[in-house]
Fold each of these.
Amino acid sequence: MTVEPSSVSSSGTAESRPHHWWKSAVVYQIYPRSFADSNGDGTGDIPGIISKLDYLAQLGVDVVWLSPIYTSPMDDNGYDISNYQDVDPLFGSLDDLDELIAGLHERGIKLVMDLVVNHTSDEHPWFVESRNPKSPKRNWYWWRPPRKGATPGTPGAEPTNMEAAFSGPAWDYDEQSGEYYLHIFSRKQPDLNWENPKVRRAIYDMMRWWVDRGVDGFRMDVINLISKPDPLTDGRPEPGRQYVRAVKFVGQGPRLQEFLAEMNREVGLDAQNLLTVGEMPGVTIEMAREITDPANAELNMVFTFEHVDLDRMPEGSKWDLRPIELPALKKNLNEWQIGLADAGWNSLYFDNHDQPRAVSRFGDDGPEHRVNSAKTLGTVLHMHKGTPYIYQGEELGMTNSYFSNIEQYADIESVNYHADALSLGMEADAVLHSLSVKSRDNARTPMHWDDGSHAGFTEGIPWLPVNPNYVTINARAAIADANSVFHHFRRLIELRHDYRVVAEGRFELLLAGSEQIWAFTRTLDNQVLVVMANCSSAPVDVPADALPDLGRAQLLLATHRDAGSLRLLPWESRVYLLG
Ligand code: GLC
């Protein structure tokens, strides 16, 4: 199948989106709250994003994925939506959004909206109405009576023993109607009932409204949770725990693929060549292949969690840490490459607004190796087959914030976990340590634009503390330095646009067992791309017999200047082209 280069258009119509254009595209995620603040209130906004469009064009990305900007009480920073068809005043207005769409399209960049439809805010008019047991909206959410024989509202009286992703039971008691409602995330994020065709119709109408406004696709929040197992039953808790994490057994419900295919048909997702990516905690390769097989007309690609779960204990939560081993990371990405090689398509990511910073997690963020490890992680990820996602600041090698005090955190998941863990008697230091390594706030500190006050992010007081290392790690310095992480990412994006082998080549992993080297080839017709990377802070020799003969190879990209021998310095990486 031929991949067309992405086209330049300001219209945002189906014609401006060639068939499978997203296969040679690179996506840039903006978390609006932390990107750029235009009005000095300390929170990023849409006019702030508009002021940075030339920066995105200079980097060369094809698509922006915008995290939620909709009206919201902000219990989960906008992933709790009370009006799907308006912009929260914190971020601006619909006019601002139209201006953003036009400004992006003028620069040949497409816009993908975050679609949060597993749940709404409890302040959404649908849920407000649904609280009344007699309302026609009652069945738009999951209302259930208390457990038989239990006293309503007391611990254990919940309809099932599911635990919410943000701690505490996944059911909340509503005294007014004597029933519980389901919320897999916070109690202000009630789950919509997708079994009800009226719910589905309302969502498809809303999606069409956005497509008509000019958006080019959707990133679908926890979309594999929309079909729940029927009936909802108890799970088996870990020893010493009363509840079982809901995400563990609510994913991949029986009607998931039916709903996705219906959505695709009804909204015209494939018909209009829109980009669709579904966030799917717990999805297996087999399921992902079915969902992304174009013949099934469901989604273009999914976000797996397997590789970002490698640093947690297998039976524990994300807070139960264990070190990441390179062979395990390579093996996992390789399995997804093989699993989706013939049908389906991969998304490629290390970073997003829910994950700690890649350079701190998989690289070495100390002063000696930060730049090269950020570049090398970018190289290995972007040279895989699939659509790469860059999260704001990843292109600068931004690091974790490593907060040491619970007062510094704003994220509901982190704050709730801290309270929950302390109430279970865990050591305060251990809890703070887990947070400093894994908290979502590591990714959410404000973007570093320059070395001025608050990193040039705001003229007010930033909503979350700025990482003090902005003085050296910032966009202005990176643009001025030809050897920066920024320019390395710019080159990676160019390679995907310029070489079909990067977008389409068959993937083959080399030296699978090496604890330092990440090496692979990509092959298309008579072209072979050879990628070798030292993913460690010690030098390493690449065994010559492990690679194709590089005698006549062209060096396309490298972290270091003298790339003559097979010795790789710490975090050195190279991309060669043969043929
Ligand atoms: C997704 C989002 C995350 C949010 C959650 C609930 O995982 O990426 O930020 O908290 O869904 O909407």
Note: The two ends are 20 Å apart (CA to CA).
Amino acid sequence: MRILAVDDDLKSLKLMEAIFAPQNYKLVTALNGESALALLRGGEVDLVLLDVMMPGLSGLDVLREIRRDRKLGATPVVLITGLEDRKDRLAGLLAGADDYVLKPFDREELLARIGAQVKLVTLRKRLVAELTRSNQDLERFALIAAHDLRAPLQNISGFAALLADDFAGKVGPEVEKHISVIIKSAERMRALIDALLAYSRFGLPGRPFSPVDCAEACDAAIFNLGAVIAAGAAAVKHGPLPVVSGDKDLLVQLFQNLIGNGVKYHGKNPPKVSVGAERRGGEWVFSVKDNGIGIPPEQHERIFDMFTRLHNWDEYPGTGIGLAACRRIVELHGGRIWAESDPGKGSVFYFSLPAGQEAALRG
Ligand code: ADP
């Protein structure tokens, strides 16, 4: 268990070292917020003991920075405050500190509070490991199942197509109808398997995030949807979009699913889809707006569940996996996704992504 103690007072750090030395903890120390963040970003720290009052970056600044960071965000932070610093203590707890200890230290109390956090860290590590393993098992299962289903499906659709060709005009309309049902069902199953395969691949260890120009990602999605957009005579445009930290392929997929739905679920009028983004506090909120059939309010949450479809295949083909995939991609990026819509009035799908240093909007 690695504990990072951050305090501008060397004496206080020495005292902590003396208190923790007999315990089974490895203590690393930093004399200011900047070097604390560098240490945190550079390696494995399980828990942070953070002085609130420091020159330069204050403890609260460091805490906020930790909570904003995708990788470090869940690291437990215990504040060190003076008895009289009630305001800072409260601000710290509201900003996401897990606990606090008072200065001057009461050795027993410090150890007890740190011990409680260590128990939580250990438990969380175990749960995360278990969850990761069972997710990987499930994903591997889905991947293998979907992969192995492809070959027999290929046979079904291949032979059904042969039957349709060989017996065209010879077997009567009834049999021809049955064969066409087989072909359509196989097509539908292939779409489902492909979507499932794509979905289960999201969970595989991905590339590290890098700056992604969302205008470029959105353009790529529009390009990929070229045939669908042309077939539906749809007008698709986007306004200025920011650069965010993420996985470009996944963000292209996200735009593609949302824009594709905007085009697909159109009413009588030709589809119009517009994509935009605006800065709200520490995040970017993206919107994908269409003029389509809309969604009843009671379905706004359900539609993000796997396999939920509000229409049958003949009306609007689909798998019910697209929005579940969108939610997964957004959550992998540390954001949220939701819809605002009413039947007949079009839909707006919103998703948020954390804003990084790259705050510029690109057209
Ligand atoms: P799919 O489109 O493959 O059915 P999705 O997960 O993308 O699956 O969407 C789930 C359901 O949500 C769709 O079946 C449809 O009923 C509804 N939906 C999604 N996007 C829209 C939209 N832009 N307008 C109206 N309904 C939508």
Note: The first helix runs from residue 10 to 20.
Amino acid sequence: MRERLQELKEQALAQVTEAQDVKALQEVRVAYLGKKGPITEVLRGMGKLSAEERPLIGQMANEVRDEIKSAIETKEVALETAAVEAKLAKESIDVTLPGRPQKTGARHPLTAVVEEVEDAFLGLGFSVAEGPEVETDYYNFEALNLPKDHPARDMQDSFYFTDELLLRTHTSPVQARTMEKFEGRGPVKIICPGKVFRRDDDDATHSHQFMQIEGLFVDKNVRMSDLKGVLEAFAQSFFGPDRSIRLRPSFFPFTEPSVEVDVSCGMCGGEGCRVCKNTGWIEVLGAGLIHPKVLEMSGFDSKEYSGFAFGMGVERLAMLKYDIDDIRHFYTNDVRFLAQFKRV
Ligand code: 2NL
């Protein structure tokens, strides 16, 4: 029996050494240590042995079993380590290879223009205010001196949900709401960028949804010259330091007096060309001194306070600055158009 056990041990250890993978090891384990294996068999046959031999053979059988078991375990660890090393070697990467260029997106040109206008006005002490796109009739029209029977309120020009709720047609209601919050105490110095909506037939220069930036400054003794100074500083910041502005009389229900603001043509420097239609000037925004009724409705004493306000179309600014010929380019998400603004 001793020889039998010694033989079994040698056979098993040889097979462990030869095993190339975990599966082969598993087979050795089952073959030698399993319930129907030869060692179990030896142990079962011990009944036939003498009382002196029995413990010796029993001990030897246990030792052989333990030795085979530990050889299998050691080999198992070695095989696993080798497998991991092989995998690592196969998957190693050459970090000195140049990387593949990543495709990056960019700000939408309208976002870029809004942020540029914001930067110009932040530098002049203005804050950015925002408000709802679904507005009440009161804030969109009434509070801006556009009473119910005013022609500019024609149902055709607006998207109404109910008699009292509509998509805002300008960002002025944000300014009215902000003024109200100041409870009659200035200064209020804000710009309001955002989407606005008007019933319109879309073409190269019109869109039923577009973006606007309005601004206002309410304080004691605010005058037309303050408006002109601020807008000139803005025009030079946005279009370039060599540009000048001019004011022409105009009309808005919420300002008095009202003006259209032109910027000198950047193409010809004022000489007259295709861009400015030979006038030397390009219309960029509307403005004026806030109508006393509008100040009063938003809680300001118009004898103590005055202010200026202005409004401009973001698409128009972008089209002028980047020579874009169709407003619809902004909304159709053609990557060939958008990719041109990566460095803007
Ligand atoms: C334009 C002209 C303008 C305003 C907007 C305004 C707002 C308040 C009070 C007074 Cl709360 N005025 N906004 C004033 C003048 C002109 O916009 O052509 N926008 C595209």
Note: Strands lie at 127-128, 134-136, 165-167, 188-197, 209-219, 245-252, 255-264, 281-290, 306-313.
Amino acid sequence: MASNGYDLWLRYAPVEDQTLLTTYQEQFQSVYFKGGSSKLDVAQKELKRGITGMLGQNIVLNPSFSDKNTLIIASAKNLNTAISASLEKDLKDLGEEGFIIKSINTNGKNVIVVTANTDQGILYGTFKLLMLMQENRDLSAINRVEKPKIDLRILNHWDNLDRTVERGYAGFSLWNWQKLPGFIDQRYIDYARANASIGINGTVLTNVNANALVLTPRYIDKVTALADVFRPYGIKVYLTARFSAPIEIGGLETADPLDPKVKQWWKAKSDEIYQKIPDFGGFLVKANSEGQPGPQNYGRSHVDGANMLADAVSPHGGIVMWRAFVYSEDDATDRAKQAYSEFVPFDGQFRDNVIIQVKNGPIDFQPREPFHPMFGAMPKTPLMIEFQLTQEYLGFSTHLVYLPKLFEEVLQADTYQEGKGSTVAKVIDGSLHDKKITGMAGVANIGTDINWTGHPFAEANWYGFGRLAWDPELDSRDIAKEWLRATFSNKEEFVNTMEQVMIDSREAVVNYMTPLGLHHMMDTGHHYGPGPWVDNLSRADWNPVYYHKADSLGIGFDRTKSGSDAVDQYAPELAKRFNDPKTTPEEFLLWFHHLPWDYKLKNGESLWNGIALKYQEGVDEVGTLIKTWGKMKPYVDAARFNEVSMLLDIQLKEAKWWRDACLLYFQQFSQQPLPAGVEKPAETLDYFKSLRFPYAPGN
Ligand code: GCU
């Protein structure tokens, strides 16, 4: 079935297996599904759409029960007593968003029941039923009880009001502010469908580098229109709050969070928003970071700032997501240490409706970072994790990189904060320390491109983020399989081959960009391509040389006790492990250590040879990917097949560019030849250094 990718994983392609098709048709012969609320109405619409597509038949949704029913979709209070009694135990634990899909024997025959405590649960259950069918699963003995493990499952759009997207590589912003509120783009609805189908229940519409204008009445009306579109899908709208807004749009002289007039201004502003959007989610704030204003401008702390905003939204049930992505230009020690140093002492001082949003690693969304040491270190403060779906540092929307593999690695990392097994996932889902609010944010990779994300495979990163936000214990491999089946094909040869390709794609990008713990070597500003030589930016910690510290003696950032001592921000077990290169996992070696070029790696190679071979391995992995994709032609429509093929060719070129530029640059210090097996660079170092990209996207 041809596709331009617009349908994402909601393609509802015809079921090809004839036996299964017949079974499904029987199971959909008599459906009870009464509408009556906006949520149920969108669930019904989706069901009809899915069934028409997959089974090639229209279905009638009966508003009253009959003995003939083969499928019943109804919230618990509308089920007949025999069925609801049999599900009582499961229903009790289901909460507001969970659902049950179960095949139940009643009156001597099997009926599939989709039920929940709420209409929202019914909507999620309906989407899941359709997804299971897209995966061609047998429903005859189905028994699924699901509820999200995380409360806030939220996309962060770094979208500006002029429709550019900071670090966006998939076109312009979806939000057509000029035409809102009058014009509702079909995209808004399809965006909401896609999100609801994977359980995403919140969206921050605007960039963390915020513009106060969005808080003015004219824009609030536009935001209201979007909130109205998203509401039936269970998606709340949030905005970024520019800390200096009281000055910029409120006419005040200060934005000091302890000033009564400032407090009053935010309270009134919140009241104004909630009057139009009663379920407005709240604010996301980037304060005192990379030039953004914040409480520290007035000698106040993050606690003062966050709590002031929290008080403004709390009468309406709103929350504040306060970001921990802070690093000051005056700190001479180590950028990686700063967020922890600034925030951990405040543990327990934030209001109940504040959650601190922490990037997955201590620097900035690199191809690989150790987990952020704040996770597990603030037992009395809700922390949400922030992942980046848009590939700012991982090849934009040109490189095929399956990010759920990266997310899973972080989520499954053990913080040891309460002994062995204290994984980041358990910090995030609130089970390690009992937390009032839990959350996971993903910086969106979505724009106006026809396929939403630029690269057909980048759709999987949106999908996988939603799935992991629903359940951070999921296996990234299973997620890849679901997505492949729904998005491309159910053919086993295809799914099994591409699943492995997706899994391997993450390590490939680490290898050809920043192997063995290297990080932040992207060319600066736009972050497109390698720039390990860059050393001329105003702030030391914006320069790649700050991170790799290559010199004639060796390479890497010494974060041991005798270096910056960043290791000490981890639990004692890990601090000890990371402090010694011999016990540091090699994938983090140069993150924590500055080591001589002849340092011996576990495989017996010298560090120099090891680095060079890793770069080559990364390039080779892309080569393998291209060969494998070539064999997938019979399973994929021509349009998407060609698109991916072209993108993979660019990825290979860029992987070689990374390898050659970095190795030529480091070779100046190592003074050693490239080991056997590593291809000779095609260009000189000067050539690579001369490249300029003034119009690289996303900047
Ligand atoms: C990175 C990114 C910025 C972004 C920042 C943030 O530094 O390059 O564009 O604003 O992260 O997360 O705030």
Note: The pocket of alpha-D-glucopyranuronic acid is lined by residues 166-167, 208-209, 286, 290, 325, 364, 392 (CB under 6 Å).
